[in-house]
């Protein structure tokens, strides 16, 4: 049995609309030009951890959850009938991976996410480790991370940088570099 906690990876809003030049909510330049590369490597690494941990997805102590934004605006590239609603290719949910659809910033409002996480973490005295990644940090990622902390479905502390990331870290989450998280998951997988 592994000594590592139950975990869940929350992949938020990695959808095609964010690739559209007219919808870049981050302005003319991006704070992380390597986002897609980093996100793809994390998803791949976590999927390996899930695969090594259990032969039964329902009994697995690691769970990947995709969140998809469904805008209510008839002109939004994130509306369900728009091509931009689709997940980016590297972030397309795999077999057995849960998809939660939201239409506000928080992945917890109007969804069953809180219950899903509480059920998943029940074997870990109700609280496990929640990893959160996605688009964009100062919108849906930040809001969902703060709510997870406020609802008591995660905890953490650590080192980070950047205005929005730093504000999360000071009270709501531990912020880690892509390579550090990926390395930890690979070590956990080697112990399975």
From TrEMBL:
SUPFAM superfamilies: Isochorismatase-like hydrolases. Keywords: Hydrolase. The keyword 4Fe-4S does not apply. It comes from the Eukaryota. The keyword Hydrolase applies. Coiled coil: none annotated. One of its GO terms (molecular function) is hydrolase activity. Residues 7-153 form the Isochorismatase-like domain. Belongs to the isochorismatase family. This is Putative isochorismatase family protein. It comes from Lachnellula arida.
